[in-house]
Amino acid sequence: MDSLFDSAQNGESREERLAELSRQVSVCTKCDLAMSRTNTVFGTGDPHSPLMLIGEGPGENEDATGLPFVGRAGKLLDDILKAVDLTRNDVYITNVVKCRAAVEEGGRMKNRPPKTGEIKACNPYLQGQKEAIKPEIILCLGGPAAKTVIDKDFRITKDRGKWYDVDGVKAMATFNRAYVLRQSGDDLQQTKRLVWKDVQAVYAEYQKAMEGRG
Ligand code: URA
Fold first, then answer.
1. For 152-181, how does the pLDDT look when each residue is reduced to its tens digit (9 = 90+)?
2. The whole model's pTM is what?
3. Pocket lining: 43 vs ligand 1, CB cutoff 6 Å
4. Residue 176 lies in a domain
5. 135 Cβ below 6 A of ligand 1
6. Is the predicted pLDDT of residue 62 greater than 50, yes or no?
7. Ligand 1 mean position to 69 CA, how many Å?
8. Among the listed residues 123, 78, 117, the one whose alpha carbon sits nearest the alpha carbon of residue 101
9. Is 95 in the pocket of ligand 1 (CB under 6 A)?
10. DSSP 43-68
């Protein structure tokens, strides 16, 4: 439940604030991604969770369904959460950009990284989500999310697994699915181990946050 202070301060609940933001996103035309999207992908999960997961942006499956991290990326996320006894309903999941960035290649639309201007145009929505949810912990999934949320010079191979203070919120980044799948052999095993280690550290903070709430 929102504290009385929260409600008295802005006159609306987290759910109401998020619903309004989501409505704004659904009709947003602040960048060209609006022209090619099927659905906007706002975010899902528990708006009262201490833990917010932030990915890069919707892919094909997310664009088709309007939900973040579905399909194969979603399966990996579910497996990661399950390993620490969490489900999607225990966390809040969103992305840096809310529309799919894609480019046509050989008659097919292929995902591409969002451009700086697209990330900037979308940033007020992410900020709004952070202000509404007030997470205590943020886990960025992949370098692009970490560059937006933690530090523009973030280097995923060097800086992942470390805690950063982002406006009073503990933030960490780990590898995303695309990065993990680019590895093979021993590198793949080592990368998976690192993701596992990062998620354990995040879960320890999640447990502390939950204990702190009594
Ligand atoms: N799916 C998402 O919603 N975000 C990502 O960053 C990757 C896959």
1. 999 999 999 999 999 999 999 999 988 998
2. 0.94
3. no
4. yes
5. no
6. yes
7. 5
8. 117
9. yes
10. -EE-TT-SEEEEES---HHHHHHS-S
